């Protein structure tokens, strides 16, 4: 009986090791993204929309990780590409080189997905899969839904979400943005985070249309990310450089 119990335990241990995941995903703010979950990102249909995902190596050893792009549902006339260490052409679906993620490290900087609507208004879904070089079955993925031109509501001249690029960028003293919010939005916030995902500035967008200007002299030189959060959903994330 003892041998049978030990054999059963051995089988259970093997099964657990097979299904154990070495990788996990989160937003730059540290909010977990479940495997195969949908992540919503939106922006102006005349500007590139960028998604950022942090990839964490939850294992006890360093891992070489590849990235694969799969177009689930993409509008015609648009293009998309991704950066995984290096930035690739739209025709590249698997990274040419892996990224080394140290044991226990949450990599905030290596990945970004870019979608160019090319003035097409609508939705596109692109899946990004991250997997180990030495074990492709050990993987995790996210389905990014890019909303171009509106925040999940019927697009009209009044209901288009727009925000300009940061100006100037890089910034040394002050930085400005102009924006237009959909009429159906009940709350909107402009958030700036550092590379660790910590919030360093936050502004409520109380007007349907306006201009936001603020100082960056209190921020250390480096790379930051700014986001627009509408109705508790992040609709846009872009990069801001402070010198």
How would you describe the overall organization of this protein?
This protein has 243 residues and is mostly beta strands. It folds into 2 domains: 22-148, Immunoglobulin-like (Sandwich), CATH 2.60.40.1090; 162-242, Immunoglobulin-like. The chain is 7% helix and 51% strand. The chain has one helix at 2-19; strands at 23-26, 32-33, 37-43, 49-52, 54-57, 63-73, 79-84, 86-87, 99-101, 106-107, 111-116, 122-132, 135-148, 162-163, 174-180, 188-193, 199-204, 209-215, 222-230, 233-242. The chain has a 5-stranded mixed beta sheet, with no helix packed on it. It has a 4-stranded antiparallel beta sheet with strand order 2-1-5-10, with no helix packed on it. A hairpin with a 1-residue loop joins strand 7 and strand 8. The longest helix has 18 residues, at 2-19.
Give a brief rundown of this model.
It contains one helix and 20 strands. By secondary structure, it is mostly beta strands.
Class of the largest domain in CATH?
Answer: Mainly Beta
What is the general shape? globular
How helical, in percent, are the residues? under 10%
DSSP strand content = over 45%
**Largest beta-sheet details:** 5 strands, mixed
SSE order: HEEEEEEEEEEEEEEEEEEEE
User: Radius of gyration in whole Å, from Cα?
Assistant: 20 Å
The mean pLDDT is 82
CATH-derived architecture of the largest domain:
Sandwich
Total beta strand runs: 20
Secondary-structure class? mainly beta
By DSSP (H or I, 4+ residues per run), the number of helices equals 1
Strand order of the largest sheet: 3-13-12-6-9
Low-confidence stretches: 1-19, 150-159
Distance N to C terminus = 70 Å
Examine the coordinates and then state which fold CATH places here, giving the name of the CATH topology of the largest domain.
Immunoglobulin-like
Number of domains: 2
């Amino acid at each position: 009986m003892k041998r049978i119990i030990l054999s059963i335990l051995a089988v259970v241990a093997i099964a657990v090791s097979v299904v154990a995941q070495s990788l996990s995903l989160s937003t730059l703010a540290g909010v977990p993204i479940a495997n195969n979950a949908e992540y919503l990102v939106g922006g102006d249909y005349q500007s590139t929309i960028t998604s950022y995902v942090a990839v964490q190596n939850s294992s006890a050893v360093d891992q070489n990780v590849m990235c694969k792009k799969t177009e689930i549902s993409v509008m015609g006339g648009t293009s998309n590409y991704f950066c995984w260490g290096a930035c690739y052409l739209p025709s590249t679906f698997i990274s040419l080189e892996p990224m080394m993620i140290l044991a226990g490290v949450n990599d905030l900087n290596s990945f970004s997905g870019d979608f160019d609507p090319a003035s097409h208004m609508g939705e596109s879904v692109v899946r990004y899969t991250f997997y180990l070089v030495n074990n492709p079955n050990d993987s995790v993925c996210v389905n990014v839904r890019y909303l171009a031109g509106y925040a999940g509501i019927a697009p009209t001249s009044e209901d288009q979400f727009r925000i300009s690029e940061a100006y100037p960028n890089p910034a040394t003293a002050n930085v400005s943005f102009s924006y237009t919010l959909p009429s159906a939005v009940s709350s909107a916030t402009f958030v700036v985070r550092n590379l660790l995902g910590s919030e360093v500035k936050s502004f409520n967008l109380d007007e349907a249309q306006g201009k936001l200007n603020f100082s960056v002299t209190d921020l250390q030189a480096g790379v930051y990310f700014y986001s627009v959060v509408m109705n508790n959903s992040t609709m846009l994330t872009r990069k801001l450089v402070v010198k």
